[in-house]
Amino acid sequence: MPKKTMSIGLSIRYLGYHAAGWRHPAADPGGSTSFRHFATVARLAEESCFDMLFLADGIGVRVTDTPPGSLTQSSQVADFEPLTLLSALSAVTERIGLVATASTTYNEPFHIARKYASLDRISDGRAGWNIVTSWSDAEARNFGRDRHLDYDTRYDRALECAEVVKGLWDSWSADALVGDKEGARFLDPLGLHVLNHEGPHFRVRGPLDVPRSPQGRPIMVQAGASDAGIELAGRNAEVIYALPRSLAEAQAYSEKLRVALERHGRRREDLRILAGVTLFVGRTEAEARARYDAMRDLIPPELGLSYLYAQLGDLSGYPLDGPVPEPQDPMVKSIARALVDQAHRENMTIRDLYSLIASGFGSHVLIGTPESIVDTMEAWFSCGAVDGFNLCPALLPLSLQEFTDLILPELRRRGLFRTHYEGTTLREHLRLPLPASRYGDPVVPTVVEPMS
Ligand SMILES: Cc1cc2nc3c(=O)[nH]c(=O)nc-3n(C[C@H](O)[C@H](O)[C@H](O)COP(=O)(O)O)c2cc1C
Q1: Which of 7, 13, 165, 366 is the most buried (most CB within 10 A)?
Q2: What are the pLDDT digits (tens) for 229-278?
Q3: Which residues are annotated as a binding site for FMN?
Q4: Any idea where the Luciferase-like domain is (predicted)?
Q5: Does the C-beta of 234 come closer than 6 Å to ligand 1?
Q6: What is the spatial distance between Cα 440 and Cα 12, in angstroms, rounded to a whole number?
Q7: Residue 451 pLDDT level (bands cut at 50, 70, 90)
Q8: CB 412: neighbour CB atoms within 10 A?
């Protein structure tokens, strides 16, 4: 039996995940709103056979000027709407998966179903939806509210929204589009289903006006560790984008998720868990460390501190090169606790801690040679804690080029990553099963040939 290989995604938001990447000599500060930049990145990722491109999203400018001065130093204010960007990228790529984030709080399910089904057909079966509920007041203010919806309402709405979206994606059986010119039958009406959904948040009749795609329906992606997040994942997620800080954490999270799948009558193996990693690689340990340090030195203190303020609260009374204090009234207690514990364990100053977080926007940072980095990736993968990784590059396209030149050959030497695409759809790349239609319809599309 061929060896199981990793799934690897590439997060392509902004210029990369390093807070000060835009100041690097190799960076084009205007790149995050340049299609040419993204096209270069997408083609390079496809040449390397990545499973998918991934676009996180917040709907508007979420960064605040805390502490003062940090806003002007942040490049995370210039962005593209993800589906628009991925639609354009679908035209300059052929195989790589295209996963975009959309919020269930600020979209109607019909919008989501229709747009993702369209991208899925435009790209011949390469689309995925990252389901989020959004979390910031900045986004709420763009949609007629002062505060964002409370947690329970958001997740309740998300659960219903995802059900409706899946229902709409089942609107067409795979053989409903007949295209019989002689008989004047474009459509088999038995293959077109009206959803007639009525729930607390949505009333949606259907059907969708986009036929089923070659991968049945778009891949559903999710992140989140709360009970509500795990429930949403158990019912829907086919890919999880996770941010575990240690192998033990990854193992515990994976088990929780797979149990949640079983609770909903799904198979444990029908889920791909990808851990977010930011890699600083060099031919020697010293070269890798020098790359990390050079980028760290570009982080202005206000910008670095803004990452810590968001999690730990106001740190203005504390010296940058002193110890990390206990958090005061943190936004997410578990994240704050984990950060402070790590800082104390590794004897980090406030500057060390913000440098680490600002280097990969909170993803797991690995610094080392190709061998040492792949050792860690292999250890996480081979014990089943993760099925692969979502690469959160420090700076694009530079970090992707480094990954391709240094990490990829080592992964392939060990038989851990593909050398070519075996399939054409994202579902095939991820080796996930075709989803059954709720109407018991055929799910594999037949090709409509022009009739002579
Ligand atoms: C790796 C990761 C990526 C995320 N990406 C986004 C995103 O792009 N947009 C967004 O609004 N929220 C994003 N989130 C937030 C989650 O959707 C979720 O709201 C948050 O993790 C809290 O959920 P929980 O309480 O279940 O952990 C992300 C979270 C994680 C862990």
Answers
A1: 165
A2: 999 999 999 999 999 988 999 999 999 999 999 999 999 999 999 999 99
A3: 57, 101, 155, 226
A4: 23-385
A5: no
A6: 37
A7: very low
A8: 15
